[in-house]
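Assemble and predict.
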Amino acid sequence: MTDLAARKARPQYRNIGVSQILSYRLPVAGIVSILHRISGALLFLFGIPFFLYLLQQSLTSELSFINYSAIVGSVLGKLVLLVLGWAFLHHAIAGIRYLLLDRHVGIEKASSHLSAQIALGVSLLLTLVFALKLFGVF
Amino acid sequence: MTTNRIVVGAHYGLRDWLAQRISAVVLLVYILILLGAVVFTPELNYFTWAGLFANVWMKVATLMAVFALMWHAWVGIRDIYMDYIKPTGVRLVLQVLTVVALAGYAFWAVIILWRV
């Protein structure tokens, strides 16, 4: 009887519901995967129009180039560039990992776990370097 | 072969999967070209920047990258819709809006480059 009660108390995860997202612990490869999706969505929603606008402002005339410089020189502009910069770096590096996995490079459990950690780490590291460059540390 | 085909489903084949990967490689190559061109430009100002994009090879490479990006984004965004948006009508509306946006962005890119 106590067995049955204990069994009933155990949480059951059949399909992941929205309310369970935070309590469901993903492996690193899963984190890289969902961030690949989120970064891709960010790049589509904000990245493409923002970078096309910057391309237009930077190329149209000397006057518009000054406007471009002002946008990328502002704090808000830099923050947007930082978020989109991370999105691009993560998407590109995780993407290279997926291309390698498609070629059956590193598909064993241990090596794919390692490459997921590398992809996550390298993209965050490069984002940090980009942030330091962006805010004029070097 | 599945029998319950729907109008907003995948195209049940290799083409989109392959296109997503080929366009990804095109984009990576373009980013490296752009990065290289910027690094090897001594001083970056309006004239050197516009001068870079005035080259025919740069316009062609940029347009190739733009079309690769549109195709790449289409496959990826459609994958997201197929995973999270279940009603066929809603998914169709979102897909149409996405195609319109991507086509618009592509034309916008052509116009930007045309004037340089």
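Residues 46 and 86 of chain A are 13 Å apart (CA to CA).
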